[in-house]
Amino acid sequence: MWEALKPLILTALDEVGCQQGTGAGLYITGHSIGAALSHLSMFAFVKKGYIPKKVYTFEAPRSGNEAYADAFANLFAKEVPVFRITHHMDPVVHLPPRALGYEHVQTEVYYDAEFNYKVCEHREDPLCANKHGDLPLDIAAHAGEHCATNLVPGKSFCYPRGCLNMALHSDLPHVDQGLSGLSSNSQSANKQATIVV
Known about the structure:
Number of strands: 9
Distance between the termini: 11 Å
CATH topology: Rossmann fold
Radius of gyration: 17 Å
Number of domains: 1
Number of helices: 4
CATH superfamily: Alpha/Beta hydrolase fold, catalytic domain
Largest sheet: 7 strands, mixed
């Protein structure tokens, strides 16, 4: 999926003035599969000369194995603030199962049922989302938690209300075929962009 989106996203970045190889800064975010794609995309962005500045992902499924998670940590953990945000008993964050060799990237910010949060620096920390891990029960009883949040208007990542009225923001570029949004923000001589997958 990332390979299909990559040329669209790279073209969109060029169109808003964030050319490859210029050290342009990127702020990256995504929800669910978009969160997993956000993690995967970081390798390609660095290879193309972009600099991830901050990454906030929400309810990401696991996107690679232990070697992938190690490579992610080695390349990004010290240089880029990456926050993988999870919510209570959301079943999606337990997919694909660890038994198949998949592992999360760090750092997890876990929100409990009352939306109190805890930062867990270690991957697959048993004090965060991994304290819930009965996948059949979580899917049956807690699937609705995948979209639930107090972090956006309307309290749903899947059906947000009031986040961005495109009629009022016609100056923002639009990309079809899967890119949810892209905005540019030039500050001083450096171009920066926010990627929403």
